[in-house]
Amino acid sequence: MTNNPGPGLPRRSFLRRAGLLGLAVAGAGSAGSLLAACAPSASSTAAGGSSGSAPKAGGILKAALTGEPDSLDPAVSSVYTGAQVYDGIFSKLIDIGPNGDLVARLATRWTSQDAKTWTFDLVDNAYFHNGEKFTGNDVKYTFERILDPKTASAYAPLYAPIDAVEVVSPTQVTFHLKASFGPFLTNLANNGEIVNQKAIESKDPARNPVGTGPFQFVEWVQGDHITLKKWDKYFRSGRPYLDEVDFRFLLVDQSRVDALSAGEINWADAVPLQQLPTLSKDPRFSYETSPVAGIPDFLAMNVAKAPFDKKEVRQAIAWAIDRKAIRQIAYFGSGEVGVQEIASGSPWFDGVDPYAAGPDLAKAKQLLADAGYPNGLTIRYLGLPQYPELLKTGEIVAEQLKQVGITMQIEQVDVSVWFDRYSKGDYEISSAYQERTIDPDNFYSLVVKTGGSINAMKYSNPKVDQLIDKAAESTDMETRKGLYSQIRAIVQDECPLIFVHYETLNYLMQKNVTGSTVGSTLELGLEDVAFTG
Amino acid sequence: MTMTMASGARRSRSAVAALPRSARIGALILVVLVVVAVLAPLLAPHDPNAIDSSRVLGAPDLGHPFGSDALGRDVLSRTIYAFRTSLAIVFGAVAVASLIALPLGTLAGYFGGWVDQVISRPLDMLLVLPALLLAISLIAIVGPGSLVAALAIALIYLPILARVQRASSLVVSQSGFVEGGRARGWSSAAVLRRHVIPNALGPLLVQAAILAGFAVQIEAALSFLGLGTQPPTASLGLMLSEGRDVLTQAPWVEIFPGLAIAVIVLAFNLLGDGLRRHLDPQGVVS
Known about the structure:
The complex is a heterodimer.
Chain A: H1 11-15, H2 17-20, H3 31-36, E1 60-65, H4 80-86, E2 94-96, E3 102-104, E4 107-114, E5 117-122, H5 136-147, E6 162-169, E7 172-177, H6 184-191, H7 197-202, E8 215-221, E9 225-230, E10 244-249, H8 253-261, E11 267-269, H9 276-279, E12 285-301, H10 311-320, H11 323-330, E13 336-337, H12 361-370, E14 377-383, H13 388-402, E15 406-412, H14 415-424, E16 429-433, H15 440-448, H16 462-473, H17 477-494, E17 497-510, E18 513-514, E19 530-531
Parallel strand pairs in A: 1-10, 1-11, 14-15, 14-16
Antiparallel strand pairs in A: 2-3, 4-5, 5-7, 6-7, 8-9, 9-10, 11-17, 12-16, 12-17, 13-17, 18-19
Helix pairs in contact in A: 10-12, 11-13, 15-16, 16-17
Chain B: H1 2-5, H2 8-13, H3 15-18, H4 21-38, H5 40-43, H6 75-111, H7 113-128, H8 131-142, H9 146-173, H10 176-183, H11 188-224, H12 236-244, H13 252-279, H14 281-285
């Protein structure tokens, strides 16, 4: 996230774009399980949390994003910055709280008759910004619209198990699922913004978002700013604190830091990694990060092509690389060493890492010899120059692989070319990433399962597929955790991908801003943000 | 200066001494740079690609006079090796373009008529395209790399150099000694070889020297965009691109390759400018 790419856009503005290609769909555990296991978000400064002076109502927050949204329609927006803005305009039935638990929003209560039927009681005091009262019909319309092929929503796979949404009364809806689906509630909390049919059909929803959220849309001046103002009839009392939020789009990292230093903005996304050590301790600012929210970066190997069709070659790479050095150099010591698809703060993390003792060069050389490459080999790395950390990872890996006799040639290509070649399998080895993995199902059913929409490694193992399906169907957290541990053990051994690093997100803000936390949905939670006076 | 020195006889006796001072300075700098590039493995204090986690963005000191970059690599060693990459690409590109432009331009200028049409019109079409667009298009088709970058630069320069050569051979073709050659019954090949090419070569050399300076910049631009030299090989443009991310924390990563580009461009420009004045037909006339 340090980004400041040459010709491209900053990384984080691309994150959701990845979603269009299927890179970004999230799942998650059942309600009870998430309640049971929570991971508190960390705050490096007291003022960043709630222990400073109390939040006061009023004020205009000027926030700098890393790029401009593509659309403000929650069903179609595919860039990360889109979600950062529309999250303030819309509400979901339920949300994921700062501790990773599910919290009530438009739904006050949710119960499951059996694993295939979920009933939600709804609030009676929510209004859309166009004056329409929120009812169960809006819930039905929202999910039918996402699932309608005409909407072409990248998030449709999240709700594919929905068979029907039944409006029992204006304040109650029932979801009928085709099969039991473990990640259902988390998916609702991750991408289930409720829209209004009249609003969608009257004006272009991409440019005129109408929700029930804490802020209503005022204007979007292309290339300059988006303004939101407080919604007086917001259904949660005492929220929001702010009168207005102005989003600016500052693509160059340094410009966000400069604008914050000059007091032109109050809040900025994505501190450049190389400046983290100084800025996170800067007395002028509060710094926020979280061990649960971020992006796993991994080395993907094309198992359909030589030489990575040999398991030993893939394992040799895993044994040859030094992930600690990569974290230290490419990520300036930030984030976590990559172990699994989720971070150490996630309730799903089991910490098992068969390559923890690495790097082991002797073992790597032995594996290469076993695979028929006793004198080393030459491999080609498909690099993304837009994402400096990933390309630097490639350069470091190339240097590390030299020690075991592997010559890794780097070919850097434009991001669109990369997506095309990567998804088609026209590469040998590359660095890739997967955002918004809250539930492991998201990662494994999309990236690892046979025919998964972004299984660019072309990996296929019927045993793993079976375990992935079983884990998705189960609604018991402990059962599912056990199944994911089994899946990981097989995948780590067969090694179609190597987790290298887990990038954590961060925000930097003026000292007098409070209530901003990094959540696992990567949204901003603006209704809780306030000035301390 | 040109007026006093420019006599054909003197020029051939002591070509270097006869050059204007600017050209001699330019040539001297280039000789030094070429020596540095050739002897890079001996001169570089460190392995240019050796990653050192303890020296990430390290400031300049005695062991690393130019500091270290974001991967802890020695910037001085990388700059020395980058000279190698950049000069090889530039010399290669200009040499290829000149060698193709020389026969094409000479034939077009000497024969004129349909020969000129066949040779010049396709080259004019190349000239219409903006230089970087042409280079990026070629790279998009073939794929990125140092060799492709060199070919792209050669493709940009080919029509320019061919045009210059065509113009000068057109002028020479109409001079008395060429007609004299023809009158003696020499073949066209002999006339071209003995009279036209030697006398029409000057402007091409001047143009090639000046364009070489710009080639350094094009190579840097392509590598900066990720289309030229591929990492981890050091190239001046690639180093600039890497340095930009850390400009406020470690300006040395950006400054030294930037200075290196400035020095090369300056050297080629001094040489080209001096050659131009030296070979200027206006000067010879006196």
